Amino acid sequence: MSERKVLTKYYPPEFDPSQIARTPKHLRPTGPKTIAVRLMAPFSMKCTSCGEYIYKGRKFNARKETTDEKYLNITIYRFYIRCTRCSSEITFKTDPKNMDYTCERGAKRNFESWRDPESTELKETDEERLDRLEREEAEEAENAERNAMEELEQKMEESKREMQVADALDEIMQRNARIERGEKGGKEEEALAQVRDLAREKREAEEREDAEAARRAFESASVAQARLEEIKLRKQASKHDETERAPQPPPSFERVKKVKNPLVPGLVRKTEPAPAPAPAVPTKPAGLGLGDYDSDED
Ligand SMILES: [Zn+2]
Description:
This protein is an alpha+beta fold. Helix content is 41%, strand content 17%.
């Protein structure tokens, strides 16, 4: 409970009072201002709904409302408390004229011998009180009925609006679906095809132009070109012939027997011509006298 009484409160370092905005006007509570207050019952009373006695000095958490009534420019306040047994609402007001309180509804003030016996509240007989209560009850019932009717009307209005909204939504959805089905599916394809056609036509036109240009060029330069071509061809052919005429013999590594020049011209030894050399036997490389290691034959 002690923290309730502290005079200085902790403000964190990042606290910025300028960030605390005022409540916008449309969010402020409207209607009669009520404050929660704690009070003591200013007089003894009896609950009219359950007959419970509430004695003077009983503490309540009450609501305090400022009324429009005034007495000599003194504001009159109304307090709302609840019966301790049945929780029905009991209201009473301040009475500046008599420096007292007046019980308004929900309870009956007990008899107090020190009060003015001429006051209307005390003069009220049981019959009159019953009448008053009945009247109040009827008023309340009427209010409730009116509220119910208003609520019903509001509900009907709301449902009507909802139907309208649903209809509008349905229409929009249908339109969207139609757009999706019809225009998106068809028109986009069409546009794409059109673009493709255009591109193809352009390419074809270019190709045709190229072919035309080539043909014209060939026609104009055909004679000179032909001559040049011929010369070139002839040159190439002659070159080709030369190369063909003197083909390089593939190098052979066969042992060729040298024809010995006669030591003395005119003096030739009469011998049989040397027999054709035996087919080349692969000569083994000169060994190092260590035997052969490169063959598995032996
Ligand atoms: Zn009660």
